[in-house]
UniProtKB/TrEMBL annotation:
This is Peptide ABC transporter permease. Belongs to the binding-protein-dependent transport system permease family. It comes from Acetobacter oeni. The keyword Transcription does not apply. It is found in: Cell membrane. Residues 97-313 form the ABC transmembrane type-1 domain.
Length: 324
């Protein structure tokens, strides 16, 4: 067990190192990405450019610059933005992370519950009008762009019907911290949660339905039916557990991607200052310290999600444990 954990830790550190090096090199390999001119300002004199380059260490070899940036990011945590001089990037990520975590977690709860129900019911009543109706609804959800659905939701809840009894409880756009007001936090995020979850409900429901239908012909399912177990028990206890392997794989990657800033469009539409919006602003300004901090934040969640998925695999299907 200890050796396996150490091996996983070594793989994690190697992946994070590779990502950080790649982001650093791509930044300096991009034409016009040299931050010296942006820091020094327009029409800066050659003397000013030289002084800024020396002050920020841009005249040092790339390995030294990389090591200095990693030290400031992970050890001293005083890495400052190149665009907003003096603004530390780690506190910016810390302020934005709860917004993205709240948005992604709430949406994940909705889409997991709804998609499991949709996929299971569709598989139980496959080739009937119930199955076709649910799959049609899922396809519609997949086809609707998030930004369009978000704008429509804002038009209904924030403008046209905001003063009615139906949506008068919806606060203005923005994020309300949970510790400040749990009720306000929930009210501010319930609409973004639903909007973000719609896409995933359709995808996950269709995937789960296909896996349940496929696994229904497996030997262990036929054995369970031969023992006289009810069709509901066979489907929910035996079939659903095995079919969740693909579901869990998708969830681990999608959830980590959302936590890392993949909910950008939802954050922009609903005025949420999350990691996605922060990363977009950093990319627009080619602000390497903020880009590096946000990318490493995202990479940590993706790597952690893969590790958790491996553990869940073993819990869901003993055959995976035996194969290892």
């Amino acid at each position: 067990m200890i050796s396996a954990l150490l091996k996983r830790l070594g793989q994690t550190l190697f992946v994070l190192f590779g990502i950080s090096v790649l982001v650093f090199l791509v930044f300096f390999a991009t034409p016009g990405a040299d931050p010296t001119s942006r820091i020094a300002g327009k029409n800066a004199s050659p003397e000013t450019m030289t002084r800024v380059r020396h002050e920020y260490g841009f005249d040092r070899p790339l390995p030294v610059q990389y090591a200095t940036m990693m030290k400031k990011l992970f050890i001293t945590r005083d890495l400052a933005s190149y665009v907003d001089r003096g603004e530390l990037v780690v506190p910016e990520i810390v302020r934005a992370a709860p917004v993205t975590l709240s948005l992604a977690t709430g949406a994940a709860v909705i889409w997991v519950v709804a998609s499991v129900a949709m996929g299971t019911v569709a598989a139980a009543f496959r080739h009937t009008w119930i199955d076709r109706s649910l799959m049609m609804l899922g396809l519609i959800g997949i086809s609707i762009p998030v930004f369009w659905l978000g704008q429509v939701a804002n038009l209904i809840t924030q403008a046209r019907y905001h003063d009615t009894w139906l949506f008068s409880w919806v606060p203005g756009l923005g994020y309300i911290p949970f510790l400040e007001s749990p009720v306000g936090w929930f009210r501010a995020l319930i609409i973004p949660w639903v909007v973000l979850a719609v896409l995933f409900i359709g995808i996950y429901g269709r995937v789960l339905r296909a896996d349940l239908i496929t696994v229904s012909g497996e030997d262990f399912m036929r054995t369970a039916r031969a023992k006289g177990l009810s069709p509901t028990r066979v489907l929910l206890v035996h079939g659903l557990r095995t079919s969740m392997i693909t579901f869990v794989s998708l969830f681990g990657l999608d959830f980590a991607q959302l936590i890392g800033g993949g909910a950008l469009l939802t954050e922009v539409v609903f005025g949420l200052q999350g990691v996605g919006r922060l990363t977009y602003q950093a990319l627009s300004n080619l602000d390497l310290p903020l880009i590096m901090a946000s990318v490493m934040y995202s990479a940590v969640f993706v790597v952690m999600a893969n590790a958790v998925v491996d553990v869940v695999y073993v819990l869901l299907d003993p055959r995976v444990r035996d194969a290892r």
